[in-house]
Amino acid sequence: MARVFSGIQPSGELHIGNYLGAVQNWVKLQHQHDCLFCVVDLHAVTQPYDTATLAQRTTDMAIGLFASGIDPARAVVFVQSHVPEHAELYWLLNTVTPLGELERQTQFKDKAQRQESVPAGLLNYPVLQAADVLLYEATLVPVGEDQLQHLELMREIARRWNTRFANGFSFPEPQALLSTAKRVLGLDGQAKMSKSLGNTIALFDAPETIWEKLKPAATDPARVTRKDPGNPEICNIFTIHQGFSPPATLTLVAHNCRTAGWGCLDCKRVLADNMIAALTPIRERAERLQAEPRRVADLLRAGAAKARALARRTMTQVRRRMGFLEAADQGGGAV
Ligand code: AQP
User: Fold this and answer.
1) Which residues surround ligand 1 with Cβ inside 6 Å?
2) What is the rounded CA–CA span in Å between residue 115 and residue 331?
3) Domain spanning 3-184+293-330: which superfamily?
4) CATH number, domain 204-289, options 1.10.240.10, 3.40.30.10, 3.20.20.80, 1.10.230.10
5) Got the DSSP string for 241-275?
6) Cα(17) to centroid of ligand 1, in Å?
7) Other beta carbons within 10 Å of 74
8) Global pTM value
9) Active-site position among 28, 109, 182, 195
10) Nearest CA to ligand 1 atom 23
11) Among protein residues, the one whose CA lies closest to atom 26 of ligand 1
12) pLDDT tens digits, 190-227
Protein backbone atom coordinates (compact mmCIF):
# COMPACT_ATOMS: atom_id res chain seq x y z
CA MET A 1 0.00 0.00 0.00
CA ALA A 2 1.24 3.47 -0.84
CA ARG A 3 1.72 5.81 2.09
CA VAL A 4 -0.31 9.03 2.15
CA PHE A 5 0.45 12.10 4.25
CA SER A 6 -1.69 15.20 4.58
CA GLY A 7 -2.08 17.97 7.11
CA ILE A 8 -4.48 20.66 8.20
CA GLN A 9 -3.68 23.79 10.19
CA PRO A 10 -5.52 24.51 13.45
CA SER A 11 -5.71 28.13 12.36
CA GLY A 12 -9.45 28.42 12.95
CA GLU A 13 -12.65 26.43 12.71
CA LEU A 14 -12.82 23.51 10.28
CA HIS A 15 -15.08 24.72 7.46
CA ILE A 16 -16.99 23.31 4.51
CA GLY A 17 -14.16 24.35 2.11
CA ASN A 18 -11.71 22.19 4.09
CA TYR A 19 -14.30 19.42 4.22
CA LEU A 20 -15.18 19.37 0.50
CA GLY A 21 -11.63 20.13 -0.67
CA ALA A 22 -9.71 17.79 1.62
CA VAL A 23 -11.24 15.92 4.55
CA GLN A 24 -13.99 14.15 2.60
CA ASN A 25 -11.29 12.76 0.32
CA TRP A 26 -9.13 11.68 3.29
CA VAL A 27 -12.06 9.63 4.59
CA LYS A 28 -12.06 7.70 1.29
CA LEU A 29 -8.26 7.40 1.11
CA GLN A 30 -8.02 5.71 4.51
CA HIS A 31 -9.72 2.66 2.94
CA GLN A 32 -7.21 2.47 0.07
CA HIS A 33 -3.83 3.50 1.49
CA ASP A 34 -1.64 3.62 4.58
CA CYS A 35 -2.62 7.14 5.75
CA LEU A 36 -1.20 9.67 8.19
CA PHE A 37 -3.28 12.78 8.87
CA CYS A 38 -1.69 15.51 10.92
CA VAL A 39 -2.95 18.63 12.69
CA VAL A 40 -0.08 20.89 11.68
CA ASP A 41 0.19 23.29 14.59
CA LEU A 42 3.82 24.20 13.76
CA HIS A 43 2.57 25.54 10.44
CA ALA A 44 -0.25 27.47 12.11
CA VAL A 45 2.16 29.61 14.14
CA THR A 46 3.70 31.11 10.98
CA GLN A 47 0.77 33.54 10.94
CA PRO A 48 -0.39 35.80 13.78
CA TYR A 49 -2.36 33.63 16.26
CA ASP A 50 -3.75 33.61 19.77
CA THR A 51 -1.68 31.54 22.25
CA ALA A 52 -4.74 31.25 24.51
CA THR A 53 -6.73 29.31 21.90
CA LEU A 54 -4.14 27.32 19.93
CA ALA A 55 -4.35 24.20 22.12
CA GLN A 56 -8.16 24.10 22.04
CA ARG A 57 -8.19 24.72 18.30
CA THR A 58 -5.77 21.84 17.84
CA THR A 59 -8.05 19.52 19.82
CA ASP A 60 -11.13 20.80 17.95
CA MET A 61 -9.44 20.19 14.60
CA ALA A 62 -8.65 16.60 15.59
CA ILE A 63 -12.26 16.18 16.78
CA GLY A 64 -13.41 17.54 13.41
CA LEU A 65 -11.36 14.90 11.59
CA PHE A 66 -12.65 12.04 13.75
CA ALA A 67 -16.24 13.32 13.53
CA SER A 68 -15.97 13.59 9.73
CA GLY A 69 -15.20 9.89 9.53
CA ILE A 70 -11.42 9.53 9.88
CA ASP A 71 -11.09 6.27 11.77
CA PRO A 72 -8.13 6.12 14.18
CA ALA A 73 -8.08 2.34 13.67
CA ARG A 74 -7.39 2.86 9.96
CA ALA A 75 -5.39 6.10 9.77
CA VAL A 76 -2.74 7.60 12.03
CA VAL A 77 -4.07 10.93 13.33
CA PHE A 78 -1.69 13.07 15.37
CA VAL A 79 -0.50 16.56 16.25
CA GLN A 80 2.65 17.75 14.46
CA SER A 81 4.36 19.28 17.50
CA HIS A 82 3.95 15.98 19.39
CA VAL A 83 6.52 14.46 17.04
CA PRO A 84 9.62 16.66 17.42
CA GLU A 85 11.34 14.95 14.48
CA HIS A 86 9.29 17.20 12.15
CA ALA A 87 11.18 20.25 13.41
CA GLU A 88 14.52 18.46 13.28
CA LEU A 89 14.15 17.24 9.69
CA TYR A 90 12.82 20.67 8.71
CA TRP A 91 16.05 22.25 9.90
CA LEU A 92 18.22 19.73 8.09
CA LEU A 93 16.25 20.11 4.85
CA ASN A 94 16.67 23.88 5.08
CA THR A 95 20.36 23.30 4.43
CA VAL A 96 19.64 21.92 0.93
CA THR A 97 16.76 24.24 0.00
CA PRO A 98 17.57 27.08 -2.42
CA LEU A 99 16.45 30.47 -1.09
CA GLY A 100 15.39 31.63 -4.56
CA GLU A 101 12.90 28.75 -4.85
CA LEU A 102 11.31 29.72 -1.53
CA GLU A 103 10.98 33.35 -2.57
CA ARG A 104 9.26 32.30 -5.82
CA GLN A 105 6.42 30.45 -4.07
CA THR A 106 3.08 32.10 -4.88
CA GLN A 107 1.54 31.28 -1.52
CA PHE A 108 4.45 32.96 0.29
CA LYS A 109 4.08 36.08 -1.84
CA ASP A 110 0.30 36.21 -1.17
CA LYS A 111 0.55 35.63 2.57
CA ALA A 112 3.56 37.96 2.97
CA GLN A 113 1.52 40.77 1.41
CA ARG A 114 -1.05 40.42 4.20
CA GLN A 115 1.57 40.87 6.96
CA GLU A 116 3.39 44.01 8.02
CA SER A 117 6.47 42.14 9.18
CA VAL A 118 7.16 38.86 7.37
CA PRO A 119 8.59 36.09 9.60
CA ALA A 120 11.17 33.69 8.13
CA GLY A 121 8.82 30.85 9.15
CA LEU A 122 6.40 31.95 6.46
CA LEU A 123 9.15 31.77 3.85
CA ASN A 124 10.26 28.34 5.07
CA TYR A 125 6.72 26.95 5.36
CA PRO A 126 7.17 24.63 2.31
CA VAL A 127 10.37 23.19 3.84
CA LEU A 128 8.37 22.14 6.90
CA GLN A 129 5.80 20.62 4.55
CA ALA A 130 8.60 18.69 2.84
CA ALA A 131 9.80 17.46 6.24
CA ASP A 132 6.24 16.37 7.16
CA VAL A 133 5.96 14.18 4.09
CA LEU A 134 9.55 12.91 3.75
CA LEU A 135 9.75 11.97 7.44
CA TYR A 136 7.27 9.17 6.73
CA GLU A 137 8.63 8.39 3.24
CA ALA A 138 5.10 9.12 2.01
CA THR A 139 4.68 8.85 -1.75
CA LEU A 140 1.22 10.38 -2.16
CA VAL A 141 0.10 13.79 -0.97
CA PRO A 142 -3.55 14.78 -1.45
CA VAL A 143 -3.57 18.47 -2.37
CA GLY A 144 -5.53 21.16 -4.12
CA GLU A 145 -4.09 22.88 -7.20
CA ASP A 146 -2.78 25.75 -5.05
CA GLN A 147 -0.33 23.33 -3.41
CA LEU A 148 1.22 21.91 -6.60
CA GLN A 149 4.07 24.41 -6.51
CA HIS A 150 4.95 23.37 -2.95
CA LEU A 151 4.92 19.74 -4.00
CA GLU A 152 7.30 20.43 -6.89
CA LEU A 153 9.63 22.12 -4.41
CA MET A 154 9.27 19.15 -2.05
CA ARG A 155 10.52 16.84 -4.84
CA GLU A 156 13.38 19.23 -5.56
CA ILE A 157 14.37 19.18 -1.87
CA ALA A 158 14.23 15.35 -1.81
CA ARG A 159 16.37 15.18 -4.98
CA ARG A 160 18.95 17.59 -3.58
CA TRP A 161 19.18 15.72 -0.28
CA ASN A 162 19.46 12.39 -2.12
CA THR A 163 22.17 13.69 -4.45
CA ARG A 164 24.24 15.00 -1.56
CA PHE A 165 23.68 12.35 1.13
CA ALA A 166 21.90 9.20 -0.12
CA ASN A 167 23.82 6.03 0.52
CA GLY A 168 21.57 3.01 0.89
CA PHE A 169 18.76 5.25 2.13
CA SER A 170 17.04 7.89 0.02
CA PHE A 171 13.78 9.83 0.14
CA PRO A 172 11.09 8.85 -2.36
CA GLU A 173 9.85 11.76 -4.49
CA PRO A 174 6.23 12.31 -3.41
CA GLN A 175 3.51 12.72 -6.01
CA ALA A 176 0.38 14.89 -5.80
CA LEU A 177 -2.99 13.24 -5.49
CA LEU A 178 -4.91 16.09 -7.01
CA SER A 179 -8.31 16.72 -5.48
CA THR A 180 -11.14 16.96 -8.01
CA ALA A 181 -13.16 19.13 -5.61
CA LYS A 182 -13.52 22.73 -6.67
CA ARG A 183 -12.07 25.52 -4.64
CA VAL A 184 -14.89 26.93 -2.49
CA LEU A 185 -15.01 30.70 -2.22
CA GLY A 186 -15.89 32.48 0.99
CA LEU A 187 -19.43 33.65 1.66
CA ASP A 188 -18.44 37.07 0.34
CA GLY A 189 -17.74 35.40 -3.04
CA GLN A 190 -14.31 37.09 -3.16
CA ALA A 191 -11.40 35.22 -1.58
CA LYS A 192 -11.03 31.48 -1.02
CA MET A 193 -13.04 30.28 1.97
CA SER A 194 -10.38 30.38 4.70
CA LYS A 195 -10.31 29.71 8.42
CA SER A 196 -8.29 32.85 9.01
CA LEU A 197 -10.53 35.11 6.91
CA GLY A 198 -13.78 34.45 8.81
CA ASN A 199 -15.76 34.02 5.57
CA THR A 200 -16.74 30.44 6.33
CA ILE A 201 -19.52 28.07 7.22
CA ALA A 202 -17.99 25.96 9.96
CA LEU A 203 -18.50 22.22 10.02
CA PHE A 204 -19.93 22.49 13.52
CA ASP A 205 -22.28 25.43 12.85
CA ALA A 206 -25.82 24.88 14.16
CA PRO A 207 -28.64 24.62 11.54
CA GLU A 208 -29.93 28.14 12.28
CA THR A 209 -26.40 29.57 11.95
CA ILE A 210 -25.95 27.84 8.59
CA TRP A 211 -29.14 29.45 7.31
CA GLU A 212 -28.27 32.89 8.75
CA LYS A 213 -24.86 32.74 7.01
CA LEU A 214 -26.23 31.45 3.69
CA LYS A 215 -29.00 34.07 3.35
CA PRO A 216 -26.71 37.05 2.60
CA ALA A 217 -23.99 34.98 0.83
CA ALA A 218 -22.80 36.17 -2.58
CA THR A 219 -24.26 34.53 -5.72
CA ASP A 220 -23.86 35.27 -9.45
CA PRO A 221 -23.07 39.01 -9.34
CA ALA A 222 -24.96 39.59 -12.64
CA ARG A 223 -28.20 38.48 -11.00
CA VAL A 224 -29.38 41.81 -9.61
CA THR A 225 -33.17 41.37 -9.45
CA ARG A 226 -35.35 38.32 -8.83
CA LYS A 227 -36.30 38.22 -12.53
CA ASP A 228 -32.70 38.12 -13.86
CA PRO A 229 -31.61 34.68 -15.03
CA GLY A 230 -28.41 33.46 -13.33
CA ASN A 231 -25.39 31.43 -14.35
CA PRO A 232 -24.69 28.52 -12.00
CA GLU A 233 -21.20 28.07 -13.49
CA ILE A 234 -20.01 31.26 -11.81
CA CYS A 235 -22.10 31.04 -8.65
CA ASN A 236 -20.30 29.99 -5.45
CA ILE A 237 -23.60 28.76 -3.99
CA PHE A 238 -23.86 26.31 -6.89
CA THR A 239 -20.28 25.12 -6.18
CA ILE A 240 -21.35 24.39 -2.61
CA HIS A 241 -24.52 22.68 -3.88
CA GLN A 242 -22.23 20.33 -5.84
CA GLY A 243 -20.71 19.23 -2.56
CA PHE A 244 -23.97 18.59 -0.74
CA SER A 245 -26.83 18.02 -3.21
CA PRO A 246 -27.58 14.89 -5.27
CA PRO A 247 -27.34 15.00 -9.11
CA ALA A 248 -31.12 15.34 -9.66
CA THR A 249 -31.24 18.38 -7.35
CA LEU A 250 -28.24 19.91 -9.14
CA THR A 251 -30.07 19.62 -12.49
CA LEU A 252 -33.17 21.24 -10.99
CA VAL A 253 -31.16 24.01 -9.31
CA ALA A 254 -29.22 24.82 -12.51
CA HIS A 255 -32.44 24.90 -14.58
CA ASN A 256 -34.30 27.14 -12.13
CA CYS A 257 -31.30 29.45 -11.88
CA ARG A 258 -30.89 29.84 -15.65
CA THR A 259 -34.63 30.44 -16.20
CA ALA A 260 -35.09 32.63 -13.09
CA GLY A 261 -37.68 30.05 -12.00
CA TRP A 262 -36.22 30.34 -8.50
CA GLY A 263 -34.78 33.30 -6.71
CA CYS A 264 -31.39 32.90 -5.00
CA LEU A 265 -33.10 32.48 -1.63
CA ASP A 266 -35.14 29.52 -2.96
CA CYS A 267 -31.91 27.93 -4.17
CA LYS A 268 -30.20 28.60 -0.84
CA ARG A 269 -33.10 27.07 1.12
CA VAL A 270 -32.65 23.77 -0.76
CA LEU A 271 -28.90 23.94 -0.17
CA ALA A 272 -29.38 24.70 3.53
CA ASP A 273 -31.62 21.65 3.93
CA ASN A 274 -29.08 19.36 2.23
CA MET A 275 -26.13 20.83 4.13
CA ILE A 276 -27.90 20.51 7.45
CA ALA A 277 -28.80 16.88 6.67
CA ALA A 278 -25.13 16.09 5.83
CA LEU A 279 -23.52 18.08 8.64
CA THR A 280 -25.85 17.27 11.54
CA PRO A 281 -24.45 13.75 12.15
CA ILE A 282 -20.89 15.19 11.99
CA ARG A 283 -21.78 17.93 14.49
CA GLU A 284 -23.43 15.41 16.80
CA ARG A 285 -20.40 13.09 16.70
CA ALA A 286 -18.18 16.11 17.41
CA GLU A 287 -20.34 17.10 20.40
CA ARG A 288 -19.99 13.59 21.83
CA LEU A 289 -16.20 13.74 21.43
CA GLN A 290 -16.06 17.25 22.94
CA ALA A 291 -17.68 15.76 26.03
CA GLU A 292 -14.85 13.19 26.24
CA PRO A 293 -11.59 15.21 26.18
CA ARG A 294 -9.64 12.32 27.78
CA ARG A 295 -10.61 9.97 24.98
CA VAL A 296 -9.53 12.51 22.35
CA ALA A 297 -6.20 13.04 24.15
CA ASP A 298 -5.68 9.26 24.27
CA LEU A 299 -6.40 8.91 20.55
CA LEU A 300 -3.90 11.66 19.76
CA ARG A 301 -1.30 10.17 22.09
CA ALA A 302 -1.63 6.78 20.37
CA GLY A 303 -1.44 8.45 16.94
CA ALA A 304 1.72 10.36 17.90
CA ALA A 305 3.33 7.17 19.23
CA LYS A 306 2.76 5.38 15.91
CA ALA A 307 3.97 8.38 13.90
CA ARG A 308 7.00 8.84 16.12
CA ALA A 309 8.13 5.25 15.71
CA LEU A 310 8.26 5.80 11.94
CA ALA A 311 9.81 9.25 12.30
CA ARG A 312 12.59 8.02 14.59
CA ARG A 313 13.62 5.36 12.09
CA THR A 314 13.88 7.92 9.32
CA MET A 315 15.83 10.37 11.48
CA THR A 316 18.33 7.71 12.50
CA GLN A 317 19.05 7.12 8.81
CA VAL A 318 19.15 10.84 8.04
CA ARG A 319 21.53 11.68 10.90
CA ARG A 320 23.86 8.86 9.90
CA ARG A 321 23.92 9.85 6.23
CA MET A 322 24.57 13.46 7.17
CA GLY A 323 27.51 12.47 9.35
CA PHE A 324 26.31 13.45 12.83
CA LEU A 325 27.87 11.93 15.93
CA GLU A 326 25.32 9.43 17.29
CA ALA A 327 24.09 10.27 20.79
CA ALA A 328 24.02 7.29 23.13
CA ASP A 329 20.39 7.87 24.11
CA GLN A 330 18.99 8.18 20.59
CA GLY A 331 18.75 4.46 20.04
CA GLY A 332 20.84 4.89 16.92
CA GLY A 333 21.75 1.20 16.74
CA ALA A 334 18.17 -0.02 16.99
CA VAL A 335 17.25 0.26 13.31
N1 AQP B 1 -11.83 27.12 0.22
C2 AQP B 1 -11.36 25.91 0.04
N3 AQP B 1 -11.85 25.13 -0.95
C4 AQP B 1 -11.36 23.87 -1.14
N5 AQP B 1 -10.38 23.32 -0.39
C6 AQP B 1 -9.85 24.06 0.61
N7 AQP B 1 -8.88 23.83 1.54
C8 AQP B 1 -8.74 24.93 2.32
N9 AQP B 1 -9.61 25.88 1.94
C10 AQP B 1 -10.31 25.39 0.88
C11 AQP B 1 -8.12 22.59 1.67
O12 AQP B 1 -8.14 22.24 3.06
C13 AQP B 1 -6.92 21.60 3.40
C14 AQP B 1 -6.35 22.15 4.69
O15 AQP B 1 -5.74 23.34 4.46
P16 AQP B 1 -4.76 24.05 5.51
O17 AQP B 1 -5.36 24.05 6.84
O18 AQP B 1 -3.41 23.51 5.41
O19 AQP B 1 -4.63 25.51 5.00
P20 AQP B 1 -5.34 26.32 3.95
O21 AQP B 1 -5.46 25.68 2.60
O22 AQP B 1 -4.62 27.60 3.95
O23 AQP B 1 -6.79 26.39 4.61
P24 AQP B 1 -7.52 27.68 5.10
O25 AQP B 1 -8.85 27.26 5.60
O26 AQP B 1 -7.50 28.71 4.01
O27 AQP B 1 -6.65 28.11 6.34
P28 AQP B 1 -5.84 29.46 6.63
O29 AQP B 1 -6.88 30.53 6.70
O30 AQP B 1 -5.19 29.22 7.94
O31 AQP B 1 -4.86 29.69 5.52
C32 AQP B 1 -5.97 21.75 2.20
O33 AQP B 1 -5.89 20.51 1.51
C34 AQP B 1 -6.64 22.79 1.35
O35 AQP B 1 -6.38 22.61 -0.05
Assistant:
1) 8-9, 11, 17-18, 20-22, 143-144, 181, 183-184, 192-197
2) 42
3) HUPs (3.40.50.620)
4) 1.10.240.10
5) HHHHS-HHHHHHHHHHHHTTSS-HHHHHHHHHHHH
6) 7
7) 15
8) 0.93
9) 195
10) 194
11) 194
12) 888 998 888 999 999 999 999 999 999 999 888 878 88
